Amino acid sequence: MAPLVSVIVPVFDDSDAARALLAGIRPDARLEVVLADGGVDPRLDRLAAERADTTVVRSTRGRGRQMNTGAARARAPWLLFVHADSRMPPGWLGHFAALPSDVVGGWFRFALDDGAWQARLIERGVAWRVRLLKLPYGDQGFFVRRDAFDRLGGYRELPLMEDVDFVRRLRRMGRCVEIPLALPTSARRWRREGWWRRTAGNAALITLYLAGVSPSTLARWSR
Predict the structure, then answer these.
(1) pLDDT tens string 58-81
(2) What is the pLDDT of residues 97-129, one digit of tens each?
(3) Domains, the chain, with CATH or none
(4) How many CB atoms lie within 10 A of CB 46?
(5) 63 burial level (CB within 10 Å; 0-12, 13-18, 19+)
(6) Is 118 exposed, middle or buried (0-12, 13-18, 19+ CB in 10 A)?
(7) In terms of Cα–Cα distance, which of 63, 56, 25 is closest to 41?
(8) What is the CA radius of gyration of the chain?
(9) Which pTM does this prediction carry?
C-alpha cells in the first residue's frame, strides 16, 4: 500500500537532530520518511537501517536541491518538507486525511523549543506575519500535493529564500491552509546569535528579498 504522506527532511552534517526528529515519528503504514543528505554522512545510513519506513537519498548541498531530490524518491500523494531540527507534534498525521480536496498545500504553526519569554514574543510575531501576509517560512513544515509540486517544478535551487519563493508560488496555485498544531523547531540559532539579533537579521533579509535583492547577494551578506 502506498503511503499517504512522505516526510522529506533535508540534512547536512546534523544527524543528531535527524535522529531526534525520527524518534518522534512513530512508524505508520500511512507515511514514509526520506532523508535528503547534502553530503555523505554514514550516520544517516545507520539511522535508515533502523527503520523500514526510512530511506536516504543524496545530492550536492543546497536545501532546495536536497528537497527536490527527496521528492523525486517520495511515493505519497502528500509531500511534507520538515527541517531536521524540528519535531512533529502529536496527532499530526491524522490531519492529512481530513484536508479538503481543494487544498493544494499549507504549513503548521511556528513554535520554538525554548521556554524563554523572548521565544513567546517571536512566536506571536510570526503568527501575525503569517496571518497578515500569508508568508510562513520553511521551519513551519511545508506540505503540498504531489501533483501541485510537479506543476510548480519543485523548489528553485536558490542559495537562500527557497522556502519563501516556493510558498509564494504555491499560494498563487490554489488554497493553502495552516494545520492548527505547533511544529516546534530548535531555538539554537537564536540562542547562539541572540534573540533580537537573529530576529532582526531574518526581518532584514526578507525585506530586502521582497524589495528585489537577489538570493545570491543575500546569501553572501548573511555569511
Answers:
(1) 999 999 999 999 999 999 999 999
(2) 999 999 999 999 999 999 999 999 999 999 999
(3) 5-189 (3.90.550.10)
(4) 12
(5) buried
(6) middle
(7) 56
(8) 17
(9) 0.96
